[in-house]
Amino acid sequence: MAEEIKLPPLPNQVVEAFNQIKTFEPVIKAIAAAKDEQERTLKDQVEITEIEAAPFHEETRAKDFARRLQDLGLTNVRIDQEGNVIGIRPGVGNGPRLVLAAHLDTVFPMGTDVKVRREGNKFFAPGISDDARGLAVILEVLRAIQENNIETVGDLLFIGSVGEEGNGDLRGTKYLFKTNEEHVDGFVSVDGANVNRILHGSTGSRRFRVTFEGPGGHSWSAFGTASAIHALGRAIAKISDLQVPEEPKTTFTVGTIVGGTTVNSIAASATMEIDTRSVNNEELNKLVDRVLPLLQEAADEENARWKAEGDMQIKVKIVPIGERPAGDQKDDSPVLLAARGAMDALGIELKKYTCASTDQNVPISLGIPATTLGGGGTEGFNHNVKEWFDATDAFLGPQLALMTALSLVGIKGRSEPLLPKRN
Ligand SMILES: [Zn+2]
């Protein structure tokens, strides 16, 4: 089902900027090279994929990525305390600062076979697309700018971030914006393959691990003892009945349950993991404020049912295991206009204009213009060892990232930056 995308036309200033950029000789050459020499992007992608980068174990891939940035001529590459790789390509001065980011981590544990198998245009390996493609694409953008000596007005910050996936909980970008070691005016992440998609907003999430604990006992001889599993069941029944708004979209689920020991025991312990999400932080927090009290309520009801007192009572332990801020932007956010302008200039059709959860969540929640672009090609079985990447027309990814970035930071003597400087 194709959704209809209704957006106001691009302002003249944006159209004019792209007219200047796409007719500029060095850019024409850079765009052509991204296509004619796409094998070098694919080579980077394969080599990066074959360096394991399990959650919280990105160091080896980070060092390799830092070296690649240096090989392309950046002299100030560093790895920050959290593990992010940061390389800056300075502009001519006094311009905005744009981050081009891709994430270093994969979802696969250490020991996973990450050897890439190639069949024609198709590549197979865990992490080949998510996000080795993004890393290779931002390297190609840097290479194109360097080889063609394109002088930008603003600075470009090339970042390989850590901890984007799952329990990494965006720790890399959170660190970047919390410490403010680098001033940032705008943020573009390259993640996934689809070049026909622009993300304007971020789904936020808050996740909890909840454990009910009690004395447990024999199902026959200790009958009358409060049960951890029964308390958990009461909690799930209450959560299941919650009503949430369709707009802004807000959701919940109990994703996992574990508990008990044998069929003939009153359970001493039961644990569940709850995922709550929304595109709106206020709704997300409201939902969490309704969910959390239900957990104690469920334990109280189970205790009351069996008149349990003191040590015989079920107790609840709640541990937050994830928090990703939600946020959205107006259609006139400069990064969104730039991405659309670049797509128009390259003849790429916008088919999806939507929200998701990526490194962009952090800047968007802080009011910093940000989006996520696809790296080109097609992909399948992400987050699964059967992951594949098809490189047909994949050069559109680096071309899109390059044009978007150049329009935002501006080209000396050619186009003004579309990205404003923040105070
Ligand atoms: Zn990703």
Structure description:
A hairpin with a 2-residue loop joins strand 4 (117-119) and strand 5 (122-124). The relative contact order is 0.20. 34% of the residues lie in helices and 23% in strands. It is α+β, with helices and mostly antiparallel strands. The chain folds into 2 domains: 12-203 and 326-409, Aminopeptidase, CATH 3.40.630.10; 204-324, Alpha-Beta Plaits (2-Layer Sandwich). The model has no long low-confidence stretch (mean pLDDT 96). The protein has 11 helices and 19 strands. A 6-stranded mixed β-sheet has the order 1-2-6-3-7-17.
Concise synopsis of the structure shown:
This protein is an alpha+beta fold.
CATH class descriptor name of the largest domain:
Alpha Beta
Number of strands: 19
What letter string, H or E per element, gives the SSE order? Answer: HHHHEEEEEHEHEEEEHEEEHEEHEHEEEH
Question: What would you give as the CATH superfamily of the largest domain?
Answer: Zn peptidases
